[in-house]
Design goal:
4-stranded antiparallel sheet; Aspartate Aminotransferase, domain 1; 7-stranded mixed sheet; globular; binds D-malate; Aspartate Aminotransferase, domain 2
């Protein structure tokens, strides 16, 4: 028996697991210190009321013979897919129900989708980037090439026609930088992919943070995207589902490679390897897309946006270069005093008991940068910024 040796090419532990380990060590050595966590993008506000009511009702149904649900459709129930279809319609995107696949979150499907592609494909990822894109492809043994995202291109790299890539990852609003592509920039990527017969894997997990109507929330707002892009979205950040687990993946029927319709291939993959998201969870997700649900989640999103403003204002006051926070829950800042990302991480943890995410954990271009999230409580965000104030002085 031979193991998959590609695992030897990834670091021993996933970025956020490494951080959690360091923080837990600090916490057990310093039980009297209050740690403020602005590291992993995990929400702190509870699920909204209509979602909780829907979850309760669905749980009751599961205990009654007449309304009990066993295996559901692997690609999700129509009651939820119809709601998602209408949500896209609000942004002038028409989707067929069969193009929507309910998942247990964007992260799983971003990894699972690779089942459809040959290991010989070349993968293009922006650097810095959400580590899942790199780690999943390294595990499979694919060749990865990087495209620089840095201050000179506002962390929004554009396609280079001289580079040939088969699988392209884009994330907008971006994790970790919070940068957002406009329609013209995304159109360049869509044209590149169609011309080169490449596939774009578009991570739109943070689309709900976009407030400017002119910025695209879905890649399908761009003409030509339905022949070259698969979109991954999640209710984690949108509706506080990080612990409840529900998302969706859109695979348009018009994506065809070598005469094979990718939508059918994905359906085949899902029906074989996945038994669907629990009925109860899908009922909770359905409630997110009702008018009451949308109103309640918007209140939560506004709360996080206000946190982002509090962080951004503090950094501005101290002339710390940063982006993000406006159409994104992430603030991406330059470490003060030329510290490396991990030096700044240790400094903040040891002196201020604030946890953030070192930029270098997202790639080499992230070195010297740091990511803070606005997903903390208001009280903790204010307290963290007070501590920042004293440090930056
Ligand atoms: C992050 O902090 O980058 C995210 O929470 C990770 C994720 O969504 O898996």
């Amino acid at each position: 028996m031979n193991i998959n040796k590609n695992y030897q090419n990834i670091s021993d532990s996933y970025l956020f697991s490494t951080i959690a380990k360091k923080v837990n060590e600090f916490a057990s050595n310093n039980p009297d210190k209050k740690i403020i966590r602005l590291g992993i993008g995990d929400v702190t506000l509870p699920l909204c009321k209509v979602v909780v009511e829907a979850l309760k009702k669905a749980s009751e149904e599961m205990g009654i013979k007449e309304t009990f649900h066993g295996y559901g459709p692997e690609q999700g129930y129509d009651f939820l897919k119809t709601k998602i279809q209408s949500y896209y319609k609000m942004h002038n995107v028409d989707l067929k129900l069969d193009e929507i696949f309910i998942s247990d979150g964007a992260k799983s499907d971003l990894g699972n989708i690779l089942d459809l592609f040959d290991v010989d494909n070349t993968v293009l990822v922006p650097d810095p980037v959400y580590p899942v894109y790199v780690d999943t492809n390294t595990m499979a043994g694919r060749k990865i090439i990087y495209i620089d995202a840095n201050a000179s291109n506002n962390f929004l790299p554009l396609p280079d026609k001289s580079v040939k890539a088969d699988i392209i990852y884009l994330c907008s609003p971006n994790n970790p930088t919070g940068a957002v592509y406009n329609k013209e920039q995304l159109k360049l990527w869509v044209d590149y992919a169609n011309e080169n017969k490449s596939i774009i894997l578009f991570d739109s997990a943070y689309e709900c943070f976009i407030t400017d109507e002119n910025l695209p929330r879905s890649i399908y707002e761009i003409e030509g995207a339905k022949t070259c892009a698969i979109e991954f979205c999640s209710l984690s950040k949108m509706a506080g589902f990080t612990g409840t687990r529900c998302g969706y993946t859109v695979v348009p029927e018009d994506i065809v490679f070598d005469g094979v319709i990718l939508n059918k291939m994905w359906l085949r993959r899902q029906t074989t390897k996945f038994n669907g998201v629990p009925y109860i969870v899908q009922k909770g997700a359905e409630a997110v897309f009702t008018p009451e649900g949308q109103k309640e989640i918007q209140e939560n999103l506004n709360y996080y946006k206000e946190n982002a403003k509090i962080i951004s204002d503090t950094l501005t006051k101290h002339n710390i270069w940063h982006i993000g926070g406006k159409h994104s829950p992430y603030i991406w800042l330059k470490c003060p005093n030329n510290m490396t990302s991990w030096e700044f991480f240790d400094y903040l943890l040891n002196n201020m008991q604030i946890v953030g995410t070192p930029g270098s954990g997202f790639g080499k271009n992230g070195e010297g940068y740091f990511r803070l999230t606005s997903f903390g409580s208001r009280e903790n965000t204010i307290e963290a910024m007070k501590r920042f104030d004293s440090f930056l002085k």
